[in-house]
Amino acid sequence: MQEFSGQDRAINPFALGAAYLEYCVKQGWLAKTGEGGTAQYELTELGEKKLANVPFNFDLSKLTKTADKKKRHHRTR
User: Fold this and answer.
1) Which pLDDT score, from 0 to 100, does residue 26 have?
2) Global pTM?
Protein backbone atom coordinates (compact mmCIF):
# COMPACT_ATOMS: atom_id res chain seq x y z
CA MET A 1 0.00 0.00 0.00
CA GLN A 2 1.35 3.42 -0.91
CA GLU A 3 1.61 6.16 1.64
CA PHE A 4 1.25 9.75 0.48
CA SER A 5 2.82 12.13 2.95
CA GLY A 6 2.81 15.85 2.43
CA GLN A 7 0.39 15.67 -0.47
CA ASP A 8 -3.16 16.95 -0.50
CA ARG A 9 -5.32 14.35 -2.15
CA ALA A 10 -9.09 14.23 -2.20
CA ILE A 11 -10.31 11.00 -0.65
CA ASN A 12 -13.58 9.43 -1.62
CA PRO A 13 -14.92 8.19 1.73
CA PHE A 14 -16.96 5.50 0.00
CA ALA A 15 -14.06 4.03 -2.00
CA LEU A 16 -12.76 1.82 0.81
CA GLY A 17 -16.18 0.36 1.53
CA ALA A 18 -16.94 -0.17 -2.16
CA ALA A 19 -13.62 -1.94 -2.72
CA TYR A 20 -14.23 -4.22 0.26
CA LEU A 21 -17.74 -5.06 -0.91
CA GLU A 22 -16.43 -5.99 -4.36
CA TYR A 23 -13.72 -8.12 -2.75
CA CYS A 24 -16.36 -9.94 -0.69
CA VAL A 25 -18.44 -10.55 -3.83
CA LYS A 26 -15.40 -12.04 -5.61
CA GLN A 27 -14.73 -14.28 -2.61
CA GLY A 28 -18.34 -15.52 -2.71
CA TRP A 29 -19.12 -14.07 0.70
CA LEU A 30 -21.72 -11.62 -0.64
CA ALA A 31 -24.17 -11.85 -3.52
CA LYS A 32 -24.72 -8.59 -5.42
CA THR A 33 -27.82 -7.57 -7.30
CA GLY A 34 -28.19 -4.28 -9.18
CA GLU A 35 -25.60 -1.64 -10.00
CA GLY A 36 -24.57 1.78 -8.72
CA GLY A 37 -26.73 3.37 -6.07
CA THR A 38 -29.37 0.65 -6.36
CA ALA A 39 -26.96 -2.24 -5.72
CA GLN A 40 -27.90 -4.58 -2.91
CA TYR A 41 -25.72 -7.13 -1.15
CA GLU A 42 -26.83 -10.30 0.55
CA LEU A 43 -24.67 -12.38 2.86
CA THR A 44 -24.10 -15.88 1.50
CA GLU A 45 -23.83 -19.00 3.65
CA LEU A 46 -20.07 -19.04 3.04
CA GLY A 47 -19.88 -15.34 3.89
CA GLU A 48 -21.72 -15.88 7.13
CA LYS A 49 -19.02 -18.35 8.19
CA LYS A 50 -16.05 -16.32 6.93
CA LEU A 51 -17.18 -12.88 8.15
CA ALA A 52 -18.53 -13.95 11.56
CA ASN A 53 -15.44 -12.91 13.53
CA VAL A 54 -13.58 -10.56 11.19
CA PRO A 55 -11.87 -7.72 13.06
CA PHE A 56 -11.99 -4.45 11.13
CA ASN A 57 -8.74 -2.78 12.15
CA PHE A 58 -8.70 0.16 9.76
CA ASP A 59 -6.54 3.11 10.78
CA LEU A 60 -8.67 6.04 9.73
CA SER A 61 -6.45 8.65 11.37
CA LYS A 62 -4.66 9.39 8.10
CA LEU A 63 -7.96 9.99 6.34
CA THR A 64 -9.25 12.36 8.98
CA LYS A 65 -6.01 14.36 9.08
CA THR A 66 -6.36 15.37 5.44
CA ALA A 67 -10.10 15.90 5.78
CA ASP A 68 -9.61 18.27 8.74
CA LYS A 69 -7.15 20.52 6.91
CA LYS A 70 -8.52 23.75 5.57
CA LYS A 71 -8.28 23.97 1.84
CA ARG A 72 -6.01 26.62 0.45
CA HIS A 73 -7.55 29.14 -1.86
CA HIS A 74 -5.25 30.28 -4.61
CA ARG A 75 -5.38 33.86 -5.71
CA THR A 76 -5.86 34.51 -9.38
CA ARG A 77 -4.00 37.32 -11.03
Assistant:
1) 95
2) 0.55
